């Protein structure tokens, strides 16, 4: 009987130790998963920082290029509500519009215009940005009212869209007032819109 009790006690003790070892392995696995997740987040933040630095560098280059292209430089600010928009132009019929915005959990809608002069020979449009959360839609509308394109920036990756076109008599419909509709839905991220006619 004592032997039976001893065997039963050993069996329970062995089961308890096995269960304790399994629990310890499970905890170690959870800790390892947490470490891997933190590494992934750190890598994503590093990538985001690099993309942001590249966007800043691109903006500086565009700004420098606009100033060297314009002969008699002129800057027009659009006022306090749209304080991130600047028009840069000169006597060479060259105009640039750059709109940059960082948003955090924001929802808004803004519409503004950009004139492509009749004597412009070329125009370029560039939209770039990234969202950690939500989405930003930028709708580009031609002077005729027809939608030229719509760019979606969401949490599935960064976007860099650009288009350059020549303006001649055949596509004169591209001169005039272009409209840009920016709509953000619970967005956390940044975007840049750069337009240029020359």
Would you mind describing this structure in some detail?
- The chain is an alpha+beta fold.
- It has one helix and seven strands, in the order αβββββββ.
- The radius of gyration is 29 Å and the shape is rod-shaped.
- The model is unreliable at 70-83 (pLDDT under 50).
Supply the key terms.
single chain, 198 residues, alpha+beta, Jelly Rolls, seven-stranded antiparallel sheet, 1 helix
Topology (elements, then pairings):
Blueprint lengths: L1 H68 L4 E4 L7 E5 L5 E22 L5 E20 L5 E8 L4 E8 L9 E22 L1
Antiparallel strand pairs: 1-2, 2-3, 3-7, 4-5, 4-6, 4-7
Order of helices and strands: HEEEEEEE
Report helical residue fraction. 25-40%
- N-end to C-end Cα span: 102 Å
CATH architecture identity of one domain: Sandwich
Mean pLDDT: 79
Could you write a compact summary of the structure shown?
The chain is of the alpha+beta class and about 200 residues long. It has one helix at about 1-70, and strands at about 75, 85-90, 95-115, 120-140, 145-155, 160-165, 175-195.
